[in-house]
Amino acid sequence: MVSIPGAPRRGRGSFAVAAVLLGLLLAATVASFRMEEESSQPDLRFQPPHIGFLQRALWQSPAHDVEITTDLLMNETETRRQVFRSVPSSTAVTGRPYQYHPEATLPVDGYSLRDAPPGLQVDEATGQVSGTPTLEGRYDVVLEGRLQSGGRVEHRFPLFVDQRFLPLGTDKRGKDVSLRIVRAARYILLPGLIAVLVGVGGGVLLGALAGFYPGIIQRVANGLMQGIEAVPGLLLLFLVAVISGFNLYIVMVMVGLILLPETARSVAERVESFRRRDFVEAARELGMRDRTILWVEIVWHNLRPLLVARMAQGFVFAVLAEVTLSYMGLGVQDDGSLGSMLLEGRTAMAGARESVVWLVLVPVTALLLVIAAFSLLERGALARWERAR
Amino acid sequence: MRSLLAELAGVLLGSIVLVSIALALLPGGEGTWLDRVLEHLATALSLDFGYSQVSRRPVMDTILDAGATSALIIASTAALLLSVGVPLGVLAAQYPGSRVISSTRRLVDSFSSLPVLVWSTLIFVWAAATLSEPLVGTGRSDRGVSVVSAAVVALLLGDRLLADIVRRVEISTREILAEPYMRTVRAAGFGVRRHLVRSLVPPIADLIVSRSLFLIGGAIVVERVFSLPGLGFTVVDALERAEQDKSLVLAAALALVMIGLWFRVVRYAAVAFADPRARA
Questions:
Q1: Are B23 and B261 in contact (CB under 8 A)?
Q2: Contact (Cβ atoms closer than 8 angstroms) between residue A238 and residue B260
């Protein structure tokens, strides 16, 4: 027999990682149903992630500029230098201390601070900005330095002060992106389960009967499958989404129906090959009924890994279908889905003055982690299937 | 041939009925549900779709333009799959120990693990951030699609199928090379390439046909992401409007089904060309 190129050899590690990721998804799903809708805070929109390394990697603001006064501009050599090497954190939380040590490349005699949030002061000698901000809002802070050469230099930077610590920043309405990601979990596991129940449950039923009882049942099953496969699945999903008034659960039944033919076909092929095996003959000789042989001996004892793999594939398909529909504007009509977040991020990127790339990268990463969880589950199941063969 | 025609007619009629029922279920419209189904059936069978309020042109003109865009996208993808996937699969089977080939295969596999939507969005974001001229269409069917857009879209759309094609070609090549007739060909001193290529046609054609619906669905997604004026863009645009243009949706849906049927016809012709037994 020719081995399948790329087929997994070991599956234990895949199962372990999948279990961790699926555990997180389950916890997020439970939390998402207990969460309340956040109110919009337009003044605090497009806040970069508060986590330092994410902010440094993803946040580029043209406001992080150094403005040099006319005195200094006369000396061209000095204007070409970067006067401040340091970049301050652009986020702060009310009631928590904030600090920034400016590092100037030119000798500075003294500093002053303008347009800073209440609670922040500057050390006039060193330029260190510190304190505990008390009032939330967006501030365009100006740190002014008096140069020994006689000129002045202005270091401008935006500072978002919020009551909340926002690990992944905020969106265009000032809502916490990390909470939105958790809220999106409600559109993943439960809808996916419906699609899998219809697609894999129905597929197993249809495929097992078609494989075990060739003849009229097989012909009916084939006709049904060809009928479902005649129209592009995504097109049917669009129509069903609009017909159902964007009811996600009805759309997921349709997703299950689209999944059904492939599951039924693969189950039918395997049941048909098992039907001719010796152990089936032996079971018949022992007086077992056909029903027991089909569902217990063939499906339960021999096809379990395949079914787990199909379920994992079904979940991935369902998640992608939901995200795609929401991205197209034909999915769930609130802003909770990963697809809506992606669309929002894409639109915001096209129009924003500052980098808002995290609004795309965060939902993409969340989506990839969900897909990875189910793909690893599938990989583990297929490895077990290979070993069993 | 007769069975192919029966299959095509069955699929086409089934699709017309299914889409007509679905459109009749959409909110709005006059008469009973059955009246609306019959009206859509009559429209589809007479091919008299009338004038579109969305595109402000005759529906057939809109569909022909959009169909050409979608066909270009899908044909570029198929060309990419065949020109890259088949040689790579054959080489992978013939030189299993080669590091270059196994690395290329791993690269193809890793690309294919990203869904089309994610790929498209990331490329869109990258293009918006770095390119001076954005890599997007205008959504207008009279502007057409640039060659660069078609190539990028083909790459996005084909990456997932590419891994499947490489894997299937590799398995089939190994199986074919182990067949007794191929040993005879070698022993007689003939080249194996011609026989190998002919023997590879049926499995590749089967795979592409089985994935054609995925290809069409993917085309709908990338058309929407990049605002390319194809059939998928047209359908979503017509459905999103408050005044849904059902004739336009019906015509675009049938055009998409026709593209799916076209895959079956090409498969039939390719298999008949490659396999004398199929011709008989």
A1: no
A2: no
pLDDT beyond 50 at A94: yes
For residue B257, the chain A residue with the least C-alpha distance is A231
Distance CA B221, CA B235 (A): 11
Proportion of chain B above pLDDT 70, given as a percent: 88
Contact B51, B246 (CB under 8 A): no
Give the distance from residue B140's alpha carbon to the nearest chain A alpha carbon, in angstroms.
17
Rounded distance between C-alpha atoms, residue A338 and residue A361, angstroms: 11
Helices (H), B51-98: 59-80, 86-94
Structure confidence by residue, pLDDT tens digits, B23-66: 888 877 777 888 888 888 888 888 888 888 777 888 888 899 88
Q: Is the dihedral of CA B209, B214, B215, B219 positive or negative?
A: positive
Determine the residue type at A15.
F
Contacts B253 to A, Cβ<8 Å: 231, 235, 239
Q: Which two tokens stand for residue A252?
A: 């997921």
Backbone φ and ψ for A165, nearest 5 degrees, come out as -85, 120
Residue located via tokens 């009805």: A250
Is the Cβ–Cβ distance between B40 and B23 less than 8 Å? yes
Look at B240 and A329 and tell me if their CB atoms are within 8 Å.
yes
Residues of A with a Cβ under 8 Å from any B Cβ are 2, 4-6, 226-227, 229-236, 238-240, 242-243, 245, 320, 323-324, 327-330, 339, 342, 346, 349-350, 357, 360, 364, 367-368, 371, 375
Quick one: pLDDT at residue A192?
93
Least trusted range by pLDDT, from A67-81, A127-141, A253-267, B148-162: A67-81
Alpha carbon distance B251, B150 (integer Å): 23
Number of A to B CB contacts under 8 A, please give it: 117
pLDDT bracket for residue A161 (50, 70, 90): very high
Structure ipTM: 0.75
First-residue to last-residue Cα distance in chain A: 11
The tokens for A303 are 């096809």
What is residue A96's predicted lDDT score, i.e. its pLDDT? 93
DSSP for A215-230, written as a single string: THHHHHHHHHHHHHHT
CB-based contact B18 A226, cutoff 8 Å = no
Tell me which H or E stretch contains A160: strand A152-162
Has residue A127 got a pLDDT over 70? yes
Pairing assessment for the beta strands A152-162 and A91-93 based on DSSP bridges: parallel
Q: Which residues of B touch A317 (CB under 8 A)?
A: none
**Minimum distance, in Å, between the CA of residue B158 and any CA atom of chain A:** 17
pLDDT of residue A62: 57
Closest CA to B72 of B225, B236, B265, B228: B228
Residue A149 has pLDDT above 70, yes or no: yes
CA distance B22 to chain A (A): 6
Could you tell me the pTM of the whole model? 0.79
Q: What is the amino acid identity at position A363?
A: P
For A224-279, what is each residue's pLDDT tens digit? 777 777 777 888 888 888 888 888 889 999 999 888 888 888 888 888 888 888 88
User: CB neighbours of B1 closer than 8 A, spacing ≥ 6?
Assistant: none
Tokens of A372: 């990875």
The beta-carbon neighbor of A231 closest among B15, B23, B128 is B15
A79 pLDDT higher than 60: no
Say what the pLDDT of residue A253 is. Answer: 93
